[in-house]
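pipeline stage [seq->struct] | target=L1 transposable element RRM domain-containing protein | organism=Petrolisthes cinctipes | residues=293
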Amino acid sequence: MDLDAVKVLLESQERTFRSALELVVEQWKERIRLVEGKMTDLTKSLEFSQAEILDLKNNEKVLQKLNKEKQVAVEELQSRVAELNHQLNYQEDYTRRNNLRISGLKEQPIGETWEQTAVNVSKILEDKLQLPSVNLERAHRVGPAAAAASSHPRAVVVRFRNFSDREAAIRNASKLKGTGIYINEDLCPASLKIKKKQFLLMKKAREDGKIAFFRHTRLIIRERIDQRSSSSVPAADSPHVGAGFSGWVGHGDSTVRPPDGTERVSSETTGDRRVSGDSTGCQQRVLRDRKKT
């Protein structure tokens, strides 16, 4: 083979190799372009996702702030509602300040009228409490009439025309001992529920020799003071002085029992205290009747 033939063969092989190499390079370039395109799409998608995440974080912060503001507003509203309920209960109790609730008063089995109830209450006030000149505005039974046929007569709500007569009846309530008749303040259901939850605590305090009594719905517990050193009248800022309601501590043999009528509360032995005042606290009165020894 001569030299020219070898040269032609080499040139042919070079062209073939170059064509094959260019084809491979072009394929790799195409793949690289595809990868670059995908990377660009992924980068854009990632940037979009990051922007969305940032927006979500910002929205979350805004929502958390709004949630806190709403929570504060709800708490304020709840506090306001509780305050209004307390004020309503207080006002309802104040409208009943001339009322007393009498339990254990015998009831006619059929058809007792308000007039008959008022007559029976007047007899109790006159015969048992020695209050002949009491003016009653009204007196009526509470509860379903069917209860009259049972062994437990319905309670009687009595409204006195004068607050002083109501206080006199409370003051003389100890004279009802042994009659099965009990006198309590006439409070709204919410106040009665609050007091009822504290009866056991009051009983325990009295069993421990302490002085325990209610000022409206708040239970007051005090250490007992020697009778000889406690003859002075409490000052106006004393815990015995109420605001808007009379608080009576039955000492000696008191006949006052819990409003639910389930248990008779034991009493003290240092004398009787009774306090009263108007709702604004403008006037407060402290009366103390010492038990004769």
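stage status: PASS
auto-comment: Residues 227-293 have pLDDT under 50 and may be disordered. The helical segments are 3-95, 114-128, 163-171, 189-196, 199-207.
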